[in-house]
Write a structure and sequence with these properties.
With 373 residues, the chain is of the alpha+beta class. Helix content is 24%, strand content 19%.
Length: 373
Amino acid sequence: MQRLVSFSKSISSAQSRAFHTIPVIDISALQRGCGSSLANRQAVGAELDWACRNVGFFYVKNHGVDARLSDRVRGLSREWFDLPAAVKNEIALSDCKVKGFRGYQALGANVTRYVGGFQRDWHEAIDLYKECDEIVAGHPEGRPLHATNPWPTQVPEYRETLQTYVGEMVGLGASILRGIALGLNLDEEFFAGARAGDPFWVMRVIHYPPLPLCSQAEGQLETNTGQELERSVQLSCGEHTDYGLLTMVNQDPDVAALQVKNTQGEWISASPIPNTFVCNIGDMLKVWTNGRYQPTLHRVVNQSRSNRRVSVPFFYEPNFDTFVAPLSEFCSETNPPMYDGIKYGDTFNKKYIPTSSCDTNDIMNNGDIFLVV
């Protein structure tokens, strides 16, 4: 399924964001039951606040998620993507209205580069969301995105491994958000409960093969390292920002492909670091902080001639019915609210369901374009 992106409109002049490296933050003090002091957790929060203000991306280490689980998720994913197309299409997203906009998206079906020239992304993916099988009061037909997942069961233990992984990532996201809350001088449990204590999570399992005609395209990629690329150059995933709250990416250790754009127009590599997740913030934090935090443009370019890349971004989102609006703590007479309040689920529905059909060629709605990471 195509997630949707909403590009950031502005960046505070106080935030130069002319970074050339992405910070690595030890978040061991944020783990539940570790016995850390409030002062230690606040220190981690200060690091997260700096990273969110000045980069929009950061790595986390000592995060508590077993590296063997992360590796197994990627390994089983490679096995699944190696299956014949007919087998993968058993959970195809083409039947998305029945499947709640969940399932398998074939190679080249997703698009992020549309404005200024159409270019399909060169990857395939499985889209999975928080499972909801209840009939929602006031919505007799249910909600379009409230459904169960068409789990990929064709590889033994794959479904069970993914489900275990989801539980770990929900816990990790909650830990990081406790640190972010402290860094913002909010209550440590600000994002818990009714705001994001029951996140409408999204997980994409993405396979990035080597780019087509790589021997020709790679020359331009190499000569334009860190720069903009012509629309004629195929990318693994076009530039975008993330719409939601917090993204945590589990990426293969041997392929550097994720790139992050600074305000000097340079694309900085977010190369894999063992036993870390690379994280980035989305538009919901921009709204809650009234622009103190801004999401950062990023793209994926697998420059390898022979190595494929598997990436598993996990999007920790607000609760479906959360109302997101600039907080009074970040507003004043001289800095009034810059964004209208939005009900997360309503906005999410509009952005996830761009047309009345489920054709993967339907790629535009009100200026928004599909998002992946």
